[in-house]
Write a structure and sequence with these properties.
By secondary structure, this protein is mainly alpha-helical. It has 2 domains: 40 residues; 51 residues. Helices cover 47% and strands 10% of the residues. Strands 1-2 form a two-stranded parallel sheet. The protein starts with 11 loop residues before the first helix and ends in a 17-residue tail after the last strand. The model has no long low-confidence stretch (mean pLDDT 87).
């Protein structure tokens, strides 16, 4: 038999307050992204767009989980990409992709 802790019942006003605060915080974070869309961003987009190869996305831990989602999104929207764990010990693993990757 599993013993689950009983959760404290939270009233609706608290739920609404937390939800609104979360949305406000996230919207500020998204708005701050505007300052990052510059010439470097445009060059990165152009580089990927003009590439004939695959985009390699890497990560470790939680960022690896996010990286695999980015790979899925890129592939589904027509940008060939692969995930490679950032702790891959040998660069020879990249050899098949060397001439066709971003």
């Amino acid at each position: 038999m599993t013993n689950f802790k009983k959760r404290k019942i939270v009233n609706n006003d608290k739920i609404i307050s937390v939800a609104k605060q979360t949305i406000e915080t996230e919207s500020k974070a998204i708005l701050n992204l505007v300052s990052l869309v510059n010439h470097e961003f445009a060059e990165a987009v152009r580089y990927i767009y003009q590439s004939n190869g695959r985009v390699i996305i890497t990560g470790i831990g939680k960022s690896a989980n996010i990286a695999t989602k980015i790979v899925a999104t890129l592939n589904s929207t027509g940008t060939p990409s692969i995930f490679m764990h950032a702790q891959m010990p040998y660069m020879e693993t990249l050899e098949p992709y060397k001439k066709m990757t971003v």
